Amino acid sequence: MDTIASLFSFITTPVSWVIVQFHSVYGKIFGPDTGWAWGLSIVSLVILIRICLIPLFVKQIKSTRAMQTLQPEMKKIQERYKNDKQRQSEEMMKLYKETGTNPLSSCLPILAQSPFFFALYHVLNGIATGKTIGVINQGLLESAQKAHIFGAPLAAKFTDSADKVSQLGATLTDVRVVTAIMIVLMSSSQFYTQRQLMTKNVDTTVKTPFMQQQKMLMYVFPVMFAVFGINFPVGVLVYWLTTNVWTMGQQMYVIRNNPTPGSKAQAAYLERLQKHVTHHEKTRSRGEKAIVKAIVAKGRDRNEFERKFINSLTKVGLVAQADGTVVKGQAEATVEAEDGTTTTTGGAPKRQQPKRQSKSQRQSGTAAGGAKAAGEAEPKTSLTKSDEPQDAKPAGGGNKPGTGTRSKAQSGQRKGPQRPKSPSKK
Predict the structure, then answer these.
(1) Which of 29, 67, 317, 380 has its CA 20 to 30 A from that of 263?
(2) Residues 41, 19: contact at Cβ < 8 Å?
């Protein structure tokens, strides 16, 4: 371990200097030899480091989103080469290279913290062994050795012997109880952070090697912390517990406000956004506009939750625009202009299809139509005949050929040729 620590000795002096500066501030409040002064100095070191790593965290989020957009392509590769694992891996690596994504981007914050972690371990190990290191002189060394956190010395470890712990002014039981509790909290916070990422912020419709990697890390990291934690000094445990709590809170914020498309977190976020937009009838923040703009730009490629969001807006007469804003629909605006009310129509009324009539209704309708047509024709015929002079009628008052047949047809008798009479009657 001394060899590994020596590799990070270049950062030991800056880390020790930051701790001393924070200690000088907290020492005036809680006392220079108290565990609160030294413990809060380590916590402040963690916060400072994590603030500096925020740009790296943003890059990690963007890389993770890029991995999410590649999931359909990755699924196609899996189905195409499902019987050839080697070719499948080669095509996956080719896809990563073409798109500039990195499946190991989720480990970047941890890797970036490694130098600070080992530098702090080296500083605390020097305090435990009574060696000055960096800017920590002999006076600060003695002050740090007197500091206790809940009865455990700052430089004590779970594996220390009773004699070594007694030299630091504590008992072995206090040290092991405090370190065991901190190790459990450290592992639990790491497991919860990874689990909420897998259960809430991952599109579970597509299974990719990226998801398998995240699932593996969910169980590997807590075990690693539990195994290596027994060899960490109490001060290092404070450092790692603080950074895990920071990561958990940061992850919860991202999942709530910038969820992964297709995840359960996105469904909950769009439901909250739909209620907010419906209440105010507009998008108020820049983040809301960015989300709506991205959903509108997808068009037919929207997932189930995004289509439900757009349909919910349509039902209340709101329309999402390409720039991320939300305006009232044209149908609702027409109703307001005509009757002055604010009743939402949700769109134009549907076209009513005519009902299908039965055979008897069609026949009765045809007969009624024929009777109506005949009734209309009769007055016209009578008027025409009344206008003719009486001399134009044939003598004897007989009808024209075919007149009787036509009159019979109009009176409701059957049309067509009649059955001939029997020869016996002639």
Answers:
(1) 317
(2) yes
